[in-house]
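Recap for those who missed Tuesday's class. We walked through two folding examples back to back. For each one, the amino acid string is listed first and its predicted structure tokens come directly after. Nothing is annotated here on purpose, so try labeling regions yourself before you check the end of the notes.
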Amino acid sequence: MNKERISNDDFGDFEEIKVENEEEEEESEEETIRVRTPKKGEIIGIITQRFGGARMEVFCTDGKKRNCRVPGRFKRSLWLRPKDVVLIVPWPDNDEKGDIIFKYNPSAISKLRKMGMLEGIKEEF
């Protein structure tokens, strides 16, 4: 059997990939973090106390403390603890109560702080 020898010239030129370029790409990805911002009628808050069941006390960016609940469709998907940053929708008939609809992850929280959306909460926590 005749086997041909393969030389490096058969495949062409290769460029060396530098690690520095990969780090720059990762930094640019961190800058483009997409964060859910509050729409009309939504408020950012932080959980201060759990009452049991699906109810908890949330300190909001507008300076009010609200008794909020987790709606049934989110009960299994949202695992909430004190000091978690959440997005709530106040009830239309009672401003002292609301529904929790979203929980922010740590990278989104840091992005919100950079954007200045958590200014009302900084004093408390």
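Example two. Treat it independently of the first, because the proteins are unrelated.
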Amino acid sequence: MKKIKDIIECDYDINISGITDDSRNVKKGYLFVATRGFNVDHYDYIDDAVERGCSFIVCDRDIDVDIPYIKVLDINNFFVEACMKFYDICLDDYHFIGITGTDGKTTTATLVKKIIGDAAYVGTNGLSVVDKTFPTKNTTPCVDELYANLKYIKDYCATTVMEVSSEALLHDRVKNFEFDIVAFTNVTGDHLNVHGSFDNYVKCKFKLLDLVKKNGYIVVNGDDKILQNITCQNMSTFGFDKNNDYQIFNVNYLSNFTEISVKYKEEIFEIKSPLKGKHNVYNIVMAFIIGLLFGIDKNVLIERIEKIGYVRGRCEELDFGQDYKIILDYAHTINGTKNILDTFSTCGKLITVVGCAGGREKSKRNIIGNLVMDKSDIAIFTMDDPRDENVSDIIDQMVGSRKDYLRFIDREEAINHALSIANKDDIVLILGKGRDNYMAINNEKVPYCDYEVVEKYFAN
């Protein structure tokens, strides 16, 4: 609870119980800030905020309401400052590690959080502090939710490992942050429906470089062609190419472990992890380097990495006592889909369940569809957050004129069929949603979870 005069200079003596720029989140006693978004002008939702019980409004235009309001010139900047004041946030009290890229953010950030130990995590898999995890609405939460998270984190941890999405950088959600370490996994293109072009997408990713502390560090996947354009001080590159600072020169993919040899100057690091696939080799090595830069002993890092199992919804192997493998993965980009298919397409008969999200880049649908049909023994196409698009139309765009696939509109039905036809030593690969707990249909987020579908199948 705060007084409005503690948030903005004024003569009003009004208690504020919360702060938001989303009228749907308004509760009695809230401050509603009518920010200007890229696609939404929250000024249009002032009446809704009033109806829901807000006590005060800050906007950048005159309005006709029956409750107090104040006008400011820069409404979006005010919103950030107001959230900091409401939640008593001083960013200097925090250490931030920011990880961005098209693929691998969640896995890498989770690995870093676990190897540091005394750190919080904010990303696609929610807010994780100590042994508690809470859901978040976005990979990098919106400003009010983000600062509320920081308020909670402050009581437990000094360090926060954060997935920094291109949309968060586009919308300046972290513009006041100074990161101790930033890391770039790869850049292959995503959310182009939001950014308008690949060049704009890259520019947004690179905005993170401007948020590094003067004595901070930058870690870059040097094998990525786009990331090779980054030239900064205090930068470490890694990858298989011999020109990288940390060169991955030997990888053994064993049945239960992946063994990785990395050379830095004259030193060799031998790293072992249960995570599978070349894409995870990059994630593991990046996490290892971040740990070194953070000041953790190399032997401690190697020991901790070996003990870290699956990351929720990322190449996650589900064990319900079945005699075949079930792999749950969030892969939804072209590169992510290719990586996970390459990892398992040579390990046995592969049954893949996949879809593409509605309201997103249509250009990638047929590419993903062909990848799945080419690399799977059985390809099953279904829904994946169709939003306001017809699921059958999305599948048609994915498969084109090909006939070597199965189609189930209902995702639960698709997964159940895949499980029912799997035999001993087969692999059922369920792609696209990971551990998401909803299905986006029209304007609603309907409760749904791939993991729960599989769990229910084996419970029957």
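Answers for example two:
The radius of gyration is 23 Å.
The longest strand covers residues 212-221.
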